[in-house]
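## Example pair
The file below holds two records. Each record gives the amino-acid sequence first, followed by its structure token line.
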Amino acid sequence: MPVDGMEATQSGCTLPLGRDDRFAFGGVPEALRVLEGRPFPLGATCDDGGVNFALFSQHATGVRLVLFDVDGTSRDIPLLTRSGPIWHGYVCGLRPGQLYGYRIEGPYRPKMGHLFNANKVLLDPYARAIGRPLTWDPSLYGFDRSMEEHPMDTLDNASFAPLGVVVSGEFDWDNDRSLEIPWRETVIYEAHVRGLTMLHPDVPNELRGTFLGLASEPVLQHLKDLGVTSVELLPVHACVQDERLVQEGLAQYWGYNTLSFFAPEPRYAVHDAVSEFKTMVRALHKHGFEVLLDVVYNHTGEGNHLGPTLSLRGIDNRAYYKGTLDNVHLLEDVTGCGNTLDASEPAVLQLIMDSLRYWVSEMHVDGFRFDLASALARRGEEVEMRGPMLQAIAQDPVLSRVKLIAEPWDLGPRGYQLGRFPWPWSEWNDKYRDAVRRFWRADDAMAGEFATRLAGSSDLFHRRGPTASINFVTVHDGFTLSDLVSYERKHNQANGEHNRDGTDTNYSTNCGVEGPSSNPDVCRCRDRLRRCMLASLMTSQGVPMLLGGDELSRTQGGNNNAYCQDNETSWVHWEVSDGDKRFLAFVQKTVALRKAHSGLRRSRFMTGESDTDGQRDIIWWHPEGREMSTTDWMDAACRTFGLLLPSEGVSEGCDETLLILFNAGSEPVRYRLPEGPHVWNVALCTSDRDVPVPDSEVLIEPVEVLILRAV
């Protein structure tokens, strides 16, 4: 049966198969009939009659589809039809489960950026699943690494190359739909599929480290108890396990080394990564959680010009990757990973857009966090906020409605773009991270900036509102919250890079002892700092994001770049001490406090001006019982202040006023409270002490946040 919409009279060819040619799906006729097929959609699309294959390669001179049996035997089928830059063919009788790849013929002229090598089987960029992962072997390189001129390598890599597999896409979503949680109600939980569940004692062994493990009842219950609304998963796209890491017994744990922009990482599946990912999304949605994906479209795992030939490099290197201005065969690298995809090129832009729409429409995800998003906005050496990709997303009827988060920088010229992304983007706010860390470390002259960050960073996002700021104190990249108060220096020796990797600018403290300590004073100091930073996060305007495991006091032993530690260094430990259980309860309480008070979740910036009823939306409060003055903010030694924050009204379900008092100093401070008919109650104290019911004044201890509410 021809593919839908295809005329039955199409010309085609018949390829005889030997008796021993057996394919993964079984039941293959003795001859395969190949029709012209159609150039869209790209990838492998199956119907009742067979599979349509379509591949972009602008500079190729020939394309061969390679079909594999489960035992590794293969058969090449020329795709004889070309529509513009798209090579295509329809193979009758094929079924889901078929393993496949491509061999691409064309010029091998490295100096011109062309690296075609028909000796190499290549992964389809549009493959919906990985049917066989790569196995490192010298034949994966398209050139002879033993010779300085790097001539074409003639070894056949068919036994080692990653292969795609045809999938049907059928799944019972059971009326699943996007939750569309408003930004102002959002609390993000950044998690790693594998690391979150590998050590969970109540997750069945066979499900640990998988999509299904993350969707298991114990994990769902933990997320419910925590109070978060959205789970942001570190990259789940199938990734390349770096050759160096494999040789050294390490792993590409974080996943920022993409192999396929459509296929889920097979390591996170028990059997079928596609259906199991969908099952996870359906379960998370059913329990009220959005699913956001951390996506890496700025580069691939093929590395620099000396890297392996796995997919895009061999399909059309010149079309996909940015070459340097002086030497087109050398790749521009604004990502620090060896190559940069050229999102201003139509084929690359289509690949990214098709991938994004696939994950929303077919996999039901609710949004994305874009790694090194500035790289995607580049045209030449300039970062253009009205460039092709951002414009394409803005007008797309599917993508413009989901959550879009930019990591607003890359490593190239003028790559730091915090605050410049257009609506409807939100952005990771590293200035927030640094201000909170430095204020609570008691650095000089930090009170003013800390207050600006608490109020939503209007200096950065004045045109979009506070929800454009994704606020965080810790994320996967850097110290955990426990390590932030336990280490002054990074300890990354286990990464095999002689402790040269990872940032040296952490704004951390060890409270007097580097690393673990049983000293009660040191432990008390660390606990106070963690609570204060967490309370600051949950009382800030903007969108808070928690690092998964921080609520359970996870430590990485001072490693601030654990990208290659797929082991207990990075995994979440669920067996915790009584003290850690108390901290977990504190985190739950602060999240609940945020959700209960509309004044902490505003969609507009506060001005300090009076409304028609004479009420001001914010007042910065001095311990002497007056407003903070310009002179107060300019005092480099200022480490204590408060803010009076009314709710947004009874219509929001709460008409309480909050007074949030911060003391990062080493001495207790007595606050005079605002005059008026208020009855003050303690809503939260980070020191977990009994605070007398305040009357006209209240004492706040060193390194403490005290939140009072008045009805």
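Second record, same layout:
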Amino acid sequence: MGNNVKITSEFWGRYRNLVRTEMIPFQWNVLNDIAGIKIEKERLNDDGIPSEKSHAIENFKVAAGRTQGTHYGWTFQDSDVYKWLEAVAYSLREKMDPELEKKALEVIDLIADAQEEDGYLDTFYSILGIQYRYQSLAGSHELYCMGHFIEAAVAYYAATGNEKVLTVAKKAADNIDDNFGPEDGKIHGYDGHEEIEIGLLRLFHVTGENRYLKLAKYFLMERGKHPNFFREQAEKYQGPNALNGIEKAADTYFQNHKPILEQDTAEGHAVRVVYMCTALADLAATTGDAEIYGACKKLWDNITSRRMFITGGSGSTFHGESFTLDYDLPNDTMYCETCAAIGLIFFARQMLRIEPKAEYAEVMERTLYNCALAGMALDGKHFFYVNPLEVNPAKSLKDPGKSHVKPVRPSWLGCACCPPNLARMITSLDDYVYTISDDAILINQYIDSESTFEYKDGTVTIKQATGYPWDEKDGVVINNKTKSVVRIGIRIPAWTANATLKIDGKAAEISKEDGYHYVDVTAGGSMEIELTFPMEIKRNYCNPLVSEDIGKVAISRGPFVYCLEGVDNGTEINGLRLPEDSTFEYEYKAGLLNGVGVIKAKGKRVELSTSTELYTNSRPTEENATLTFIPYYAWANRGENEMEVWVRE
């Protein structure tokens, strides 16, 4: 079933153009070591982080025999190139660019040259010792990297029809199938970092080859059945250093503590969890397996109702970049990796394929407009790995426990998974606007766009006209060029209390069914819909079990979470308070931060004592202050300063 979604949104058009004209070329220069930038470590004083250069393209040249040298960087460095290629694929799908296509074809040729004759594809072992492949899966990331390549290959094939890239991907998948599975003589195991499962399922969807589906299911269902698998491999391993001690991590770090179908809380490395869940939900949607769906729902509910930050971020500690326990959501020591936010969006998309519940689209929206978008600066050339909810630059500099919290976005990172991941997310955004099933077409996201879908026995076109995310209306025109009635589900935002609806110019009562209002468009007919969703400025409060945020409030408007930033509010912003009875003033400022809505309110500021006493018996006095809030995604674009999402009330 083909579809074509053309995004015409001014807001997202700027970002997508930025990725195409700035981010993709910049990342190309980084991958080729010609960017002339400083590569920053995610954490200070960690000598184990390779940050001298990227060397990612050069690794492929060495593996292909084009140049002499050795491998440099993480074992997962190949994936930086693959995610770059996937972003290029989506960019070419939107707008063909001969020069960009030429670079992509050169990369595909290089990858094909680096691939072993039997289909194995990984520069680390091709360069340092092919005889050791698949023997250190806790940290080698071989399957992880091949999963990212398969994703890129499927995307590039779908966008351009390039057969060569798909052939390389199938050859790699066949090699994995030859080496892994329940059969005697094969490895009864899986990768330390989930991703190959996503790639195999995407390959199944485009080729129809059932063995790729079967292998993806095997990897998922095998995980956790033998928790000592990684340690047993590590004890025997004699090859190049691919482990860095990671095999000693707790079983939960790898989601290896129990079989997936028995897991009911999100444990361990946050990115691994949401990648695992993405594949699991895809498998459930594809096969209709109720037990697998049940596992997805348990993990979804645990993440979104107990372990997700208000920005859509996840990962409560930098130790293992991991989930910890329910309601443990610290603001200035958390991780909230950009990749984890992107992975949660992937998970939400697959859950929408299973059941039409707006809660998935709501989390997708929250995460997209806040934590994910904050991962990139407005110039497209600086990036966050970690997306904090509170920052004091002095503490980031001097407290080792907060050195992962950056007050400004670096140009690049030693572990560079996030920037190319964000690039492929933004360029593929058109895949997240709608969900298409046999029962209905769901409008999940309000994005100015013109779309055509092959549906049932004809085509359906949908045009959205909206100034979202700043404006409060969406006009939708639907043309049903099929011989059947087509059902359309329109998401009614959970963050608005007074939405109104007009159908063909007449007021209609909204009737929500799991967050969607449904309309039927007659065969050969059309319909005009006007949805108005007032964007009230809201105060958000945490569950009292979130100890860090008791007595605090977070401000939101529409899809955006807001924050205080030092450049607008001065220093020591933790001394600011937003009284319960303060009212808000909203103004859209086109000349600020590429255009943002600004919220102001009357507040209070603790008067800083001139006394040198650390503790006193006198309550601090307060003075009047004006509090200025900007959207969270736009912070850290005006130099180094403090930031805070949760404000004392």
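Notes on the second record: The longest strand covers residues 596-606. The chain has a mean pLDDT of 96.
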